[in-house]
Each structure stands twice: as structure tokens, then as C-alpha cells.
Fold these 2 entries.
Entry 1:
Amino acid sequence: MTDEKSLVSGFDTSAAEPRLDEGGVLGSIGRTGASRRQFIKGVIASGAVVSSAGYVFGGLGGCSMEQPAGGAAAGGVERLISLMVNGETRRVDVLPFETLAMTLRYKLGLTGTKLGCDRAECGACTVLLDGVSTYSCSTLTHTVRNKAIRTVEGLEGPNGELHPVQQAMIDELGPQCGFCTPGQVMSAVGLLETNPNPTRDEVRHALSGNLCRCGAYDHYLNSVMRAARA
Ligand code: FES
Ligand code: FES
């Protein structure tokens, strides 16, 4: 019976099966007394850990958060630039290949913009650039210095009230886990500002770049149609 320790390490040192005694990694595992089967289990376990780490830290692919003193990093040197975010000028140090999602979330503290895939597949990171819905995970920050950037935080009314699209999504029970919601909201706002009376198909098309793992698509469609009627 595998004990708790072997579940963590991936192999049981008490087993009597043939041992691996080659050099390198195999050798070091062999010296611990691991069997072939236990070694394979260990590799699978460590592979799972690597995969999980890739998922957790995948969102950091847009820039290195570890930099030596002076701002130099593997991707280059940061440069101080001005961005127009939600109607305000924000000064921020940006690496040459830093994505807008990284800048917004980790340097400007605008965490309403989510990072899902970090590779232009899910739409969680959608923001408006000059009114056009755009994946911020696939947009270099240096390329948007002359654009008006709007994030979900920028939709708040003067007295803290929700944007009509946000209110409609609440009314129609759009958000389930809510992870995709800011992206859905920004795509919907971008649509309604250019087309205030869209057909259901036009809404469907506008939101087609926003994946919802909870499958709440009809709720989001109903929400945008409701907001258009408001
Ligand atoms: S995080 Fe940008 S498209 Fe998925
Ligand atoms: S509400 Fe959960 S991913 Fe869309």
C-alpha cells in the first residue's frame, strides 16, 4: 500500500523490485531504491507539477517580473512611457516585449483584466483600444502609447454605478464563475458603442472571441440584448 510520503515523492522506497543504477537522474533515483514502475510514476507526477506550474505562471509570459537592479531583464531594459488608461495619463516603466495585459495587471494594478490563455485564444484579457475590443495579452504595451485604453475598471460611473452592460449581466445571471466576464463586458461595450441596436446574431458575432468555460453564452447574449434595450 502506498503511504502518504510515496504519493508525494512519486515512488515507494520500500519496494523490492529491480533497481535502476545508471548515472545522472536515473542513477540518483536508483540510489534511493526506486523501481522502474515507481520511477515512471515519479516522472508522471513531476510532469504534472511542471504542467501545473506552466499554467499558474503562464500568465507571466508577457514579461519577466524578476529583474536585476537597474531594470535590465532578459527581455531588455524598461523604458518610462505614458499611457492613457481609463481617461487618465499613467506613467509606467515597460519592457520592450511586455504585453498590455501584464502592464495593466501587474504594474498599474488593474486586475479586472484577466489572463486566461495568454495566447490570443480565450478573450479573458479583452480591453478597448480606441473603442475596438482587443486581446491585451497579445498586444505590446509600447504599441498603444497613442491609444485610449479602457479596461473594465473604466466603466464605473461617477458615483460608482455599474455600466448598463454590467447591470444587464447581473440581471440575466450571465456570470457563473465570472472569470470571462470582464472580457465579455468589454466586447459588449465595444459593440454597443458602435452599434446600439444590434441583432442577436451581431451580438453573437461580437462576443465570439470570448470563450466561457461555464458555457453561459445564452445568458451573455440575453444580457447584451437587454442592455441594448435599456
Ligand atoms: S488571455 Fe488573452 S486571449 Fe486569453
Ligand atoms: S462565467 Fe465562468 S468562464 Fe464564463
Entry 2:
Amino acid sequence: MRDLCPPGGISGVLTGMRIAKTSLHLEAAERIRELIVEGDLPPGSRIPERELCEQFGISRTPLREALKVLASEGLISLTQNRGARVVKLSRQDIEDTFQVMEALEALAGELACSRITDEELADVRALHYQMLAHFERNEMADYIRINQAIHEAIITAARNPVLSQMYEGLSGRVQRSRYRATMSRNRWRESLQEHEEILDALTARDSKRLAHVLSEHIEHKLEVLSTSSMVSPGEEADMDEDYRPGAAGG
Ligand SMILES: [Zn+2]
């Protein structure tokens, strides 16, 4: 076997690999992600790098690192001359993203059935009833928030970090617009019924059924999105501004 150690030993190599202030750029990425998701940085807009550095009180290097993270998630695009921009998603991009998310959710459901603890299951059940109460009180934003927490709890219960990471990246990509309460009461009721089935299948630890129900649930979200009044004429080619996955059925 060849000697892989360079002259000076491994410490010579490691000197240049010091990891410093790692959380700084991750925090910056998180803040910028919020600005994008909440619509403060709209699709297609330029990322105001200098202003953000000032606002966050950080230097250029961690900001650039943060932008690379967001670029890897598909939230922004980096070009050498024009700087960073918030990505605009086409309808096709959104459909493609949903397709992969559907497969991941179904797989997560399948795995969660055998891996979820009783305590986690009780948490999901509690969230479900909390969500139901928001439906009764017509509180859509809260409903959507809890809804998302349920989906995330199922992903977590699958205990597959690769899956979690992929799912997070994809959902970050499509969840960037502010929630707006445009889901019809009918679709809302259907969504709730699907959630009843999700809870039933999970409680029964019926992996095939849960995978099926989750995959239908996400397909309905996309259907509502494609057909609903959420996308007003003229905006069809570019749904960024009006695309709100939560509003599309949760
Ligand atoms: Zn849902």
C-alpha cells in the first residue's frame, strides 16, 4: 500500500481545513430563505448582497457561502457577472418537484409505519386534533402551519436522514410564497378527510395504505394548484407569485 501521508504528516494537510464560524453562513442562509419564502425577495429579483451584509452584520465571505447553500437547494441562481437572483419556477418545475416529493412522502409513510414510536404517534394525533380545531374556527393560516408539522413529523419518523434532507430541499424550493387563504371550503374539507385517513393508516401501521393515501394527498394538492383560481389569467406561465403549496390543500 502506498503511503498516503504527505510530508509533515496529516497535520500539514489539516492546517488548511480549519472550519470556522460554520454557523454564520448557515444562519445567513436561513434568514435569506425566510425573505424568499415570505416574498420579501420575490422570484426573479436580484439578491441585494451589500445590503444584506450590512443588515446581518457579516462580511462578504459568509454571505457568498450562504448563497451557495441556497443555490444548491434550487432557491437562487448564481451567475458570474449578474450576481445572485431568486429563481423563478415554471409550472413544469413545480410539477416535477411535486412528483419527486410525492415519491418521497410515500416512502416516508411506508418507513414511518414501522419506525414511529408510540410517543411520536401520540404527537401526530394531537397535532391532527389541533388542526381540526383550526378548520372549525376557519383559521386557515394556522391550519396550514399544523398541517405542515404533521407532514414533517411523518418524514422525521421515517428516520432516514437522506430522505429528510432531500425532502427539505424540495419543499423549501416550492414553499416560498406567503400563504394566502384561497383554498375553497370544499377542498379544505377534502384535505381534512385525507388527513383522517393518514392518521388512521399510521395508527394501524398500515404501510401500503399510508403510502397510497399520502401520494393521493399530494396529487390533489397539485390538481388544486393547476385548476384553481389561485392562478389568475396571465400568471399561468409563471406561477411563482401565486404558488402557495399550503393554500393548495395542505
Ligand atoms: Zn396535508
